[in-house]
Write a sequence for this structure.
């Protein structure tokens, strides 16, 4: 099970530049949390402080009963073994192959034999869709592939706490969906505590159990996702909608004159360019793939939401109830699908029953990856009229595969 991370009164500065002050929050054990905020608000600095790479001026970070701001170097070394970290740029060793990058934590922190290391590394590489690229150097692959390799390395020790700094940056929308699903599946499997730093509003609305937001050197709020997604705070609403009209400016502190000019434009009916999505509706969370265990975090999260539900506005209460009903429906459908798989003796279901991780695309999806062979194409014989109903002849092309030159992200 994951480990609770308790942060109390945390303050961090670089010289005279204060990054954030008096940040207090608790990452509940075994739950997925997300941290939002405009660029430059210190979200990555916060992650680095959680693992002791940066030392705060004030406050405490208690992990598994140990305050890492006060502990010895030896104690900190042991605490770090609980973490898996996906850094914003992947942070791979440029002179090592992807295989050796992913294997590095195993070789550094365990005494496993090389054949065991290889089995574990190849499992994680397959998990993030990089099979066949394990011998390449980081400079020979795309930024998105480096990001996925960084995630494989973060998972290689089966950590109890996973920190992801913008896991979607450099990835196309499809791979972002796969990585998001993978994080949910991992949480279902090992009940890890996960913190995601992101600007991706779709991830924020569909993946985490809890959401926090940093703005103007302070934590605006942190709590169950339903609390932030139904918030009436102007800065929260502006960030979720991506509108330029609001407290957030090009620089973090919006000039008063600019704000008045924008208010005048709004009054004149000029839009701020934000999405028109109805954020009063809470989109149901992404569920684990069929055959995966049910997330233990769901019951713990719901209990907290029910306890605070009466304190929320009526429209928020109604949106939360609708969302929970929809999640229950989706969960029931997933359970029914998993039962069908067991009945049909589907190998993927058997792997799940054995407690093995499988790639996100292996269950509940017909997608076989960008290199999947085309099964057959049908084309009319030469000279045939397009309106002719003559049966066409298939051209079998299954033996051909798109070459993988490492440039896909």
């Amino acid at each position: 099970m994951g480990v609770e991370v308790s942060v109390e009164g945390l303050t961090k500065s670089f010289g005279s530049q204060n990054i954030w002050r008096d940040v207090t929050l608790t990452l509940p054990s075994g739950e997925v949390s997300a941290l939002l905020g405009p660029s430059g608000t210190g979200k990555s600095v916060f992650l680095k402080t959680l693992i002791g790479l940066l030392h705060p001026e004030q406050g405490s970070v208690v992990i598994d009963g140990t305050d890492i701001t006060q502990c010895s170097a030896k104690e900190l070394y042991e605490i770090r073994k609980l973490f898996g970290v996906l850094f914003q740029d992947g942070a791979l060793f440029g002179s090592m192959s992807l295989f050796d990058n992913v294997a590095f934590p195993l070789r550094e922190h365990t005494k496993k034999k090389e054949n065991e290391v290889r089995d574990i590394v190849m499992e994680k590489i397959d998990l993030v869709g990089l099979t066949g690229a394990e011998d390449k150097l980081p400079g020979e692959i795309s930024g998105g592939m480096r990001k996925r390799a960084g995630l494989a390395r973060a998972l290689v020790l089966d950590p109890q706490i996973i920190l992801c700094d913008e896991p979607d940056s450099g990835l196309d929308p499809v791979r972002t969906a796969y990585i998001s699903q993978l994080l949910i599946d991992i949480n279902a499997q090992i009940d890890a505590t996960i913190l995601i730093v992101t600007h991706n509003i779709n991830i924020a609305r569909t993946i985490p159990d809890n959401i926090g937001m940093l703005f103007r050197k302070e934590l605006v709020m942190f709590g169950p996702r339903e609390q932030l997604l139904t918030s009436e705070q102007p800065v929260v609403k502006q960030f979720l909608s991506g509108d330029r009209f609001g407290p957030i400016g090009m620089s973090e502190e919006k000039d008063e004159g600019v704000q008045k000019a924008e208010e005048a434009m709004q009054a004149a009916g000029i839009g701020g360019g934000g999405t028109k999505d109805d954020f009063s509706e809470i989109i149901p969370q992404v569920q684990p793939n069929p055959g995966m265990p049910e997330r233990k975090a769901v019951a713990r999260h719901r209990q907290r939401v029910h306890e605070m539900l009466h304190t929320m506005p009526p429209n928020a209460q109604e949106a939360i109830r609708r969302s929970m009903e929809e999640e229950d429906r989706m969960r029931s459908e997933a359970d029914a699908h998993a039962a069908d798989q067991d009945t049909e003796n589907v190998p993927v279901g058997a792997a799940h029953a054995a407690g093995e991780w499988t790639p996100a695309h292996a269950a509940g999806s017909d997608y076989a990856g960008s290199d999947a062979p085309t099964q057959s194409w049908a084309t009319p014989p030469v000279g045939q009229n397009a309106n002719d109903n003559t049966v066409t002849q298939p051209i079998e092309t299954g033996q051909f595969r798109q070459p993988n030159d490492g440039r896909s992200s």
About this structure: The radius of gyration is 24 Å. The CA atoms of residues 155 and 316 lie 36 Å apart. Residues 348-403, 405-409 have pLDDT under 50 and may be disordered. The first helix runs from residue 43 to 50.
